[in-house]
Amino acid sequence: MAKVTALAWEMGAVAESADAAARERWLARRSASSAIAQLAPAKYAEDITVPRSEIPAVLKELKEIAAKYRLHLPVFGHVGDGNLHPNIMANREDPEEMERVALGLDALFEIALSHHGTISGEHGIGIAKKKYLPRQMGAAALAYMERLKKGVDPNNILNPGKIF
Question: Which of 5, 27, 33, 104 has the fewest CB within 10 Å, making it most exposed?
Answer without folding.
Answer: 27
